[in-house]
Amino acid sequence: MSEFGVAEYKQYTGGDAMMIVDGTTHRYRGTIPWSMSPWAIANLGAGLLEVIQMCKSIPLETPWSAKRAAQWDRISVGHWLGTRIKSRKAREMLEMALAGTYTSAASETSMLWMLTQMASGGGPVFVISAKDGSQDARPVGGMGAIYRPIATELTEALRLSQPVRSIAQDADGVTVRADHLTVRARRVIVAVPLAIAGQIAYEPMLSADRGLLQQRMPGGAVMKISVVYDEPFWRGDGLCGQSAAPGTPATLTIDACTDTGTPGIMCVITEGPAARALGRLDESARRATVIRELVDRFGPKAASPQGYHEQNWTTERYSGGGMISHAPTGVMTEFGPALRQPCGRIHWAGTESSAVMLGWVDGAIRSGERAAVEAMSAEGVSR
């Protein structure tokens, strides 16, 4: 951001957050809703502490080499929660906070993958927190303020609406083909989600490990819905806009206002099985369902938005879900090294291949820089 002179503004956290469990709303500030039962709080704290300790044992560059990697890769996050967290309320909260990052059911995600991603961001408290955490700030002008100047620098080298169909390697270089474009280069960097990379035809075939990895790391199901109001009325009611309700059609909400504070934008994030269920409704039923959830949480002022915009990332052709790819059980220990290992003249980027801030834009940028240095070094070109 500093390279392009893009300023940041803080995520609004000036009011209470809400956690809704079993129909009961808990208002709180910080990370834990202390008004829950002592039993649930004790389980929640113990679970977070155990995850923190496990994350400390993960080698960021080679998580599959962790001392307990095989043990953790044999079980899902859901299995771990079911055996370690006895309070159902605490278990539901942790499942949403931890597995929700991968927009999948906790039963779909390897415990080792979760620990790898959490460790790459400094641990679970930083990962799930807004204030002083991974969601602490936003770029003024959105991500467009960053990618537009990059696109300007690239000029004619940037070709839009040209999805790559095939990559062929030979002794001298690579031939990359799209529908109406063929590019010849010495090396190529592929920086798309793993499931999308698997849709490209490679000649010769990729290594067995890389090919199988791409078959085994899907994106999750996620819908993001921006509900627009004249002003962020929840702030006047002493709320920060952040709410969480495990298993509901509006799993999470956050205040998504720009740096000006108006209009009021409430972002609804629905993940995993709940997102798939919401996606099966028609558009009018989805809208009614989401608005009803907001009214239940934020009162009658939420009933009459001036705008409603939804994005189902699960059905996006060249995203294939989100927020990031996730590894089911057994994948990391069997195929993990293939996340970054080049296949001849093909180099791999993408946030899942980053050792630091895996799953964020930060990690995606780091992976691109790493892959670029890797490709240049292979050609004997210095930075």
Automatic annotation (TrEMBL):
* Family from the record: Belongs to the flavin monoamine oxidase family.
Protein source organism: [Mycobacterium] stephanolepidis
The cofactor(s) it depends on are: FAD
Q: Which SUPFAM superfamilies match?
A: FAD-linked reductases, C-terminal domain, FAD/NAD(P)-binding domain
Q: Which domain of life is it from?
A: Bacteria
The residue ranges of the Amine oxidase domain are 83-374
| Protein name listed in UniProt | Monoamine oxidase
InterPro entries recorded: Amino_oxidase, FAD/NAD-bd_sf, Flavin_amine_oxidase, Flavin_MAO
PANTHER family given in the database record: AMINE OXIDASE, AMINE OXIDASE [FLAVIN-CONTAINING] B
Record key words, sorted: Oxidoreductase
Residues binding FAD, per UniProt: 164, 352
Q: Quick check: keyword Magnesium in the entry?
A: no
Species classification? Bacteria, Bacillati, Actinomycetota, Actinomycetes, Mycobacteriales
